[in-house]
Amino acid sequence: GTGAPQIHDESDSPGIYDASRNVSNHIEGATVQDIEEALGRADHVFEQTFHTQQMQHCPVEPHIAIGWLDGDDRLVLRSSTQVPFHTRRMLAPLLGLSVKQIRVIKPRIGGGFGAKQEMLIEDIVGHLVLATRRPVRLELTREEEFVSSRTRHAQT
Fold this sequence. Notes:
The protein is of the alpha+beta class.
């Protein structure tokens, strides 16, 4: 047979350009080859230099990591990281473990905005878990976020 009958024949993702390829939108537009010529045709051209200062990302959830050893003596870290596999690769040589001896769990996080794309506290938690063989939790306060975490650099 042909399998189960189709119940809903409407699109699963109305308004999504190509859901099967995870492409939400497609924009057709002209590519500007000659910038000066395009600016010459513009009704208005504004030229200005803009400066932004260094900024703290300020996600709702600060950096936090909880670590423990599981039943197979594997280091498990539950972290607010945006890069769990990168963190695991970086931790392994620091702690003298293979990547197979480390598991990094990244639950849904309360924002990151790029501030959690590096390992910041996971190495500290990993070292403490291995040294004490006990669970460890480290959560930065808001003040510690401003003093100790990554920021977006100033731009001109």
